[in-house]
Amino acid sequence: MNHRVRLGVNIDHVATVRNARGGVHPDPLRAAREALAAGADGITAHLREDRRHITDPDIAALSLLCAEVGRPLNLEMAATDEMLAIALRHRPHAACIVPERREEVTTEGGLAVAGHEARIAPLAQALTGAGVRVSLFIEPSLDQIEAASAVGADIVELHTGRYCHLNGDERAIEFERLEQAAARAGELGLEVHAGHGLDYQTAAHMLAIAEVCELNIGHFLIGEAVFVGLASAIHRMRAAMDAVA
Ligand code: PXP
C-alpha cells in the first residue's frame, strides 16, 4: 500500500444517544467538528427513513459545516424518491445508497444492485447530474460489482460486516472475496471504499487491499469515545491505519 487511505467517520450513533433522551445532547454536529479537527477526512451520516438517529435538521447542519470547512459529507440513504429529493436539495459530496429495512438494527448486508438495475440506474443518474458522487454499499461479490459499474456508480463501498464477524479460515475466505471484488472494481474504474463493523485491527487489515482508498467507520469509534474521547479514538484509528502504510 503506498497511498494514504482516507478515514470517514460515521456519527450516526452520537445521534442515537441524543435521541434516547429526546434532547439536544450529545450534538452530532459538535461530534463532526471534533472528528474533522482530530483528523477525519470526511463525515458520514445515514438519514434513515425512520429517522431513528440522524434527522433532517442534522443533515442540513452537517452539509453547511462540511461546505464551510471544505470536507466531504457522505450521505447514506435508501434508494427512495424521498431520499433522492433530500440528496438533491443538499448536494453532498457523495451519496452512498444502502439497503434499508425498518426492523434491522443496522445496515445488514449490501444493496442488491444486480437484478435491480432499472431502479438504481435512474437514481444514480439523477445524483450524478446534480454533481453528487454515487457510491453503492454492496457485498464483495463480482455480480454486484459488475452491476454497480453498469448503473453508472462512481464508487463501491464493500461491506466488511461479514469479514469482521468471521474467524479463522472463514475470515480468510471472506478476505479473498473482498480482494477479488476490489480488484474487479478497480479494473472497471470504480473507486473502492470499505466499511461496517471495523475496529482498529480489522481496519488495518483492509489496508492490505490495494484498491481500497477510504474506510467509513462509526460504531466502534463512537463506542471507544466513551472510554478515551472521540479525538483520541480517531487518533488511534489513524495511527493503526498509518502503521500499515
Ligand atoms: N458504511 C456504511 C454504508 C454503513 O451503512 C455503515 C453503518 O451505518 C458504516 C459504513 C459504518 O459501520 P459501523 O458503524 O459498523 O462502523
Mind sketching the topology for me?
Blueprint: E1 6-10, H1 12-21, H2 28-37, E2 42-46, H3 56-69, E3 73-77, H4 81-90, E4 94-97, H5 117-129, E5 133-138, H6 142-150, E6 155-159, H7 161-165, H8 168-187, E7 191-195, H9 200-206, E8 212-217, H10 219-228, H11 230-242
Parallel strand pairs: 1-2, 1-8, 2-3, 3-4, 4-5, 5-6, 6-7, 7-8
The structure holds pyridoxine-5'-phosphate.
Give a verbal description of the structure.
The longest helix has 20 residues, at 168-187. Strands 1-2-3-4-5-6-7-8 form an eight-stranded parallel beta barrel, surrounded by seven helices. The model has no long low-confidence stretch (mean pLDDT 96). Helix 2 runs parallel beside helix 3, helix 9 packs parallel to helix 11 (230-242) and helix 10 crosses helix 11 (230-242). The protein contains eleven helices and eight strands. Strand 7, helix 9 (200-206) and strand 8 (212-217) form a beta-alpha-beta unit. The protein is of the alpha/beta class. It has one domain (6-242): TIM Barrel (Alpha-Beta Barrel). The structure holds pyridoxine-5'-phosphate. Pyridoxine-5'-phosphate binds at residues 10, 12, 46, 76, 96, 98, 106-107, 137, 157, 195-198, 216-220.
